[in-house]
Amino acid sequence: MSTTARTAPVTGRGLKLRWYICGLLFFATTVNYIDRQVLGLLKPVISRELHWTEADFGWIISAFQVAYAIMMPLAGRLVDWIGPKRGYAIAVIFWSLAAMSHSLARSVVQFATARFALGLGESANFPAALRTVADWFPQNERALATGIFNSGTNIGALVAPLAIPWITVRFGWRPAFLFTSVLVLIWLVLWFTSYRHPPAAVVRADSTAASRLPYTSLLTEHRTWAYLLGKVLTDPVWWFYLYWLPGFLDKSYGLNLSAMGAPLVAVYLLADVGSVSGGWLSSSLLKRGFTANRARKTAMLVCAVAVTGVMFVPFTKGNLWLAVALIGLAAGAHQGWSANLFTLPSDLFPQEAVGSVVGLGGLGGAISGALVAPMVGYWLDFSHDAYGPLFVVAGSMYLIALGLIHLIVPKLEQR
Hints:
- The chain has a single domain (12-199, 211-408), classed as Growth Hormone, Chain: A, CATH 1.20.1250.20.
- Helices cover 77% and strands 0% of the residues.
- It has helices spanning 12-50, 54-82, 84-101, 108-122, 125-136, 139-150, 152-171, 173-176, 181-194, 215-218, 222-253, 261-287, 292-307, 320-341, 344-348, 354-383, 388-408.
- It is globular.
């Protein structure tokens, strides 16, 4: 693998185009997370109509995670092979059709099948987006660009509780799964008409045969395992917020589908701020002369400490907005953490291997999420909705993950 990664300064049209492309990554990620969020929002309504248990819901979520795990390394490899332009478009079309198929489901098995298909398609979003960032942005701007497009996860999770209850109240829950189809068509037109290979000024001079490295070779790299463990330990926390937070608000505070919109919007607004702020922090430190190692780990430490506040949610004693503030702070810190964690593959590997390494990390995070989701469901059924221990676990994972990353890779650098 190459040991250098040189990027010439970019000015004029190339500079404007790369931020426009970053905007399209944000757009796609927003749609991606609207599709993910719909089921969690509709869980109280559908579970009452179809008589789901918490464990049933956990297994439906697990179906998504299993598919995500299976496909993530393949999606990363596909993006490295055919490039992000075609790879991203294929994935967006596939996951849009899978999202719409939820409207036809009538049983736990059918929902799990639709969710499995959604996981297959959505697995390509982050490998494609991160490979695009690695192609178009120099190292000192990657965390900021990643934070910007990754904030689409929060905008998607914010738009969904505003739009989905309105659609559901007026038309029923099945049409709610068709909401994003028009957005997908708009994105596809913009993507195909604007995306092109980056000009020579922004292509990093570290081209190697890394894209042809077998996964067995990447798995022998301790740097791969540092990224993978970070995903394994912290991804399930985000899935917990995304899928179980509406149920928590329903069970703990008696909020119906319409009433939970404001708390969810507040949580994901804070998450959005955290995503951009976390990326800005490490990028700012790099511009101030910090090494990549010091900048990334400092930003991740700040986020890991901020997350710990969520452990106090069980002690808010029924104060809805205090609980929302603590969960929102944790969600924002998670997204700031993710903006920096996502940059590690491009810090540690040549760009041709970024999609593959991201895919391996996604595989680990998805397997972890697939195992955790049913366990959460069984725990809530067994404990009669005792969310407290779950928040304690969620608040502790980031410091553990950062400790392991630093132990495995004391210095972030390509070699």
